[in-house]
Structures are given as C-alpha cells and as structure tokens.
Amino acid sequence: MRLLVTGGAGFIGANFVHSTVRERPDVSVTVLDALTYAGSRESLAPVADDIRLVEGDLADEQLVERLVAESDAVAHFAAETHVDNALADPAPFLRSNVIGTFSVLEAVRRHGVRLHHVSTDEVYGDLPLGEDVRFTESTPYNPSSPYSATKASADLLVRAWVRSYGVRATISNCSNNYGPYQHIEKFIPRQITNILTGRRPKLYGAGANVRDWIHVEDHNSAVWRILDGGEIGRTYLIGADGERDNLSVLRMILQLMDRDPDDFDHVTDRAGHDLRYAIDSGALRDELGWAPKHTDFADGLGSTIAWYRDNEWWWAPLKERVEAGYAKRGQ
Ligand code: NAD
Ligand code: DAU
C-alpha cells in the first residue's frame, strides 16, 4: 500500500509513521507536512531512511493532487491544533483545517483514493461535570472554540463529499492524546518540561476541567483498524476510558517527578474553557474489535516523563519561546 500521511511530522502523525514503519513493512509512507512551528523533521529522524518527507502546504492544490494521485490511501492528520493559539489568532486554523481539508477532499475525489480523516472529540462541545453521560457518534455537533469549529467544519465537508461524490472516507473523533513527541505547548508536556527546567507548573483556573486521556499509540492502532476494516462513510469515536480532572493529572505528574503535589501556580483560565470531554468508544470496540493497550495511566505518564527527560535535545530549544508566549497571556 502507498500511504500518504498529512501532518506526519507532528505529534500523532509522527508516532503513526513510526509504528507503521515498525509494524507494516508492506506500506510505503509519504509524509506531507508544512513543518509549521508544530512539526519537526527531528520527530521523523528515527525513520528518515524508511519514508519520503515532502515539505509542503495542504493549500498547495497542485502538490496535494500530485501526491494523492501517487497514493492508494490518505491518513489526514495535518491541522492547526492548539486551542489557546486559535483563541489568539484563528486565521491559520481556517486555512489549514478547513481549506486544507477541502484541498485533500478534492484530490481524493478526482483520483478515487481512500481517505481517513482524523478529527477530535471537541467537535461535540463539552459535557457537564459529574453526570454519567458521554459523547457518541450521534451526539450533535456543538463546537465551542475557533479550533473545534474548524475541525467540525472539516468533518462536515468530509461527510458531504461522501454523500455527494461517493468519496471513500471514514472519520475518527478521538479524545486527548499523550505520549512522546507532543509539542510542549500542550498540558502534559508543558508541565513535565516546566519541572525539568526549574519552572513551576501552570494550572488554568481551579483545574476541575476533565479530559479523557488516551496514549497516542492506542489512538494510532485505532486509526489503522479503521483504515483496514472501517465502513465507508462512518464516524468512529476513539477513547480509552481515561477521564481525569486537570488538577489530578498535574498532581500525578508532580508525584511521579518526586515533587510536592502542591508545588504549582494557578493561572488565568482559558476563555470559553470546555468543562469535560468523555468518549463512548463502544462501536469501535464491538464492531472492529479494537481495544487500547495502555490502560494504566500512571504507567503511561511515567514513560512519557522518562521520554522528555531523555530527549531534552528535542524540546529544549523551544522552551523559552513557548513560555514567553504564555507569560504574555498571563498563563
Ligand atoms: P500537531 O499540532 O502536533 O501536528 C500537526 C502537524 O500538521 C504539524 O506537523 C504541522 O506542521 C502540520 N500542518 C499544520 N498545518 C498544515 C498545513 N496547512 N499543511 C501541511 N501540514 C500542516 O497535532 P497533533 O496533536 O499531532 O494532531 C494531529 C491531528 O489529530 C489533528 O487533526 C488534530 O485535530 C487531531 N487530534 C488531536 C488530538 C490531541 O490530543 N493532540 C486528539 C484528537 C484529535
Ligand atoms: O480532546 C482532543 C483535543 O485535545 C485535541 O483536539 C486538541 O488538538 C488537543 O490540543 C487537546 O485539546 P485540549 O485543549 O484539551 O488540550 P490542552 O493540552 O491544551 O489542555 C488540556 C487541559 O489542560 C485543558 O483543560 C486546559 C488545561 N491546561 C492547559 C495548559 C496548556 C492547563 O491547565 N494548563 C496549561 O498550561
């Protein structure tokens, strides 16, 4: 199989490329990535000799058309992904997430190529705290942030291209990922690298907001399961029953790093901060037989901390700039 992976130099995409090279020698991988601030060649260094990396933008229609024409399938991960950045400057989110997905859809339509579109649970908005209710495939879309609104828009384009043009596409909406190679702007790696650089971790508001954590390897095994056996036109929700509030996650990180669990700062809360995400992944498990492997969160967090400790070369050059950006916003 010739597989085009968009966004393969970002967090989830790079992990996807690593596991594909490791586990699927029959797949030849081409990565298309604009290498924005969030993507890095270094994340693909361990597989550099096994793949082709094309630096380019989704909005470059001719380039996308050419690469899609050479492929049997596309795994579409590329997007602008950080909610705080979207609140500060939404324009790049419109370009990459909406126009970028349109460009991919037009190319797969013209060439009859299979598409898997990677999306997020944030398209469903948020859930109340403390109620036993979770997102399912039929939960109405209700995005809260400029980021989630652009991801929801992209999902709707994919659905329309399936119905109107018979494009062979599937969609997955996954919960919060953690693991190696995640950009240090995101919650878990930001706190780990704060501690490693002698800074105090930063918690938005009271830390009561709940996220449903899944290890990136489990997200990616689900994406492969859908590519292999998913029903065209279907949406699958991916989650690993990993609900935790932010304060508990932060305290666990502090504890695993031998710090006082109260050694952190409360900072300005995120505007419009979603309260709780929770995924019901029953359909994926029952119909496609998928199950997560990383079911012990403390264990997964411990190995993620070890990865950041051992790979300072990968993140240290970014740290000052990321923290200066947060400081400007009082976070
Ligand atoms: P990331 O920000 O780490 O990486 C995104 C990658 O896309 C980067 O390499 C970047 O250079 C590339 N990119 C951005 N705009 C581009 C463009 N216009 N053209 C080409 N490349 C471009 O993101 P991530 O966390 O790895 O997320 C990957 C996908 O998974 C996204 O679609 C995101 O919405 C989705 N998702 C993420 C999570 C999560 O917890 N991180 C959860 C569910 C779904
Ligand atoms: O649910 C899936 C989504 O998860 C993905 O679609 C997004 O691309 C991904 O970034 C993530 O979104 P979140 O906004 O949930 O992730 P983030 O890591 O930014 O924040 C997680 C929680 O931690 C959130 O409630 C805000 C809080 N937070 C975040 C940062 C960066 C803090 O308390 N302190 C921080 O420093």
TrEMBL record:
Family to which the UniProt record says this protein belongs: Belongs to the NAD(P)-dependent epimerase/dehydratase family. dTDP-glucose dehydratase subfamily.
Keyword Signal listed: no
Gene: rfbB
Domain NAD(P)-binding: 4-299
Alphabetical keyword list: Lyase, NAD
Names of required cofactors: NAD(+)
EC number: 4.2.1.46
PANTHER family: DTDP-D-GLUCOSE 4,6-DEHYDRATASE-RELATED
Xref: Gene3D superfamilies: NAD(P)-binding Rossmann-like Domain (3.40.50.720), UDP-galactose 4-epimerase, domain 1 (3.90.25.10)
Entries under InterPro entries matching the protein: dTDP_Gluc_deHydtase, NAD(P)-bd_dom, NAD(P)-bd_dom_sf
Signal peptide bounds: none
Gene Ontology molecular-function annotations: dTDP-glucose 4,6-dehydratase activity
Reaction equation(s) it catalyzes: dTDP-alpha-D-glucose = dTDP-4-dehydro-6-deoxy-alpha-D-glucose + H2O
Catalytic class of the enzyme: lyase
KW NAD (keyword) present: yes
Pfam families, per the entry: GDP_Man_Dehyd
Organism: Candidatus Mycolicibacterium alkanivorans
Protein name according to UniProt: dTDP-glucose 4,6-dehydratase
